[in-house]
Every structure is written in C-alpha cells, then in structure tokens.
Design goal:
Helicase, Ruva Protein, domain 3; two-stranded antiparallel sheet; globular; mainly alpha; 3% strand; disordered C terminus; 2 strands
Amino acid sequence: MSTHDQRIAQMTFASVYPMYVAKVEKKGRTKKELHQVVEWLTGFHTRKLQELIKANVTFEIFFRQATLNPNAHLITGVICGYRVEEIKDPLTRQVRYLDKLVDELAKGAARRVFAHLRIPGRPSGVPITMRRAPPPNQRPAGPPADQYLTAV
C-alpha cells in the first residue's frame, strides 16, 4: 500500500462529509440527494451515516462496514486526477467511486440516475443499469459521455 493509499485509508468520513454536502448544495442539490448517492454505493441509510460520522470512522472502517453496490465497478472516469477504473488499491478505488458519484451529482449528470435508483432493501424505484462509455472514436455523435451514467 502506497503512502497515498495509507493517507486515504486513515482519513475520516466525518472530515470529508461536510465537503460533500457543501459541494452538492453549492450546485443546487440537496443533502437528501447526497444521502441517496451514498446509500446506493454503500447501503448505508441516513441514520447509519450519522452514526458513522459521530463515531469518526476512517474510510477503511467505513468501506469495511459497507455493502458495496454490485454495479459500483461500472463507475468510470477521472476524479482527483486519477482514472477510477485504473486505481489498483481496492479501498482507494472505493473512495474515488464515492468522490466520482458526488461530483456527478453536483454537476447534475447523476440526478437522472439517482432519481431512478433501486436501493437494495427498498421496494420502490426502478433498477438502474449503468454502462461503460465506448472509446471516444466509437462514440456516436450527439450527447456527451455523461449519457453512459444514466438509467437505461
């Protein structure tokens, strides 16, 4: 594990959570939408999130307790200068999945996705299918690559 990966593992979710909230609210999104994103990825409902924040858990513990969404591996793209799908360390990749989803929510691209999510254990919602964007030279003309992060 690199020094970078160790630093991420020891960061607390509570230290990053206010930045997630500020980022999405600055762009006109809500804390409720943020919680939907986190719940989709981790399975944590709002009450459990608050418990984890209060306990000041590290990302290592946060993701150890999480039930990662089976479609999480379909999250691709660049976040914080790293291509998510190329990150070797599993924990760092999971943290970057969360960062990427929060970023997409703030940009509005994920809003279409999470409006139709089926969160495990909840009867409402429509199942989501995320698909990987084809290489740039094989993409059809028209909508941007964000279309591949939408419900289909």
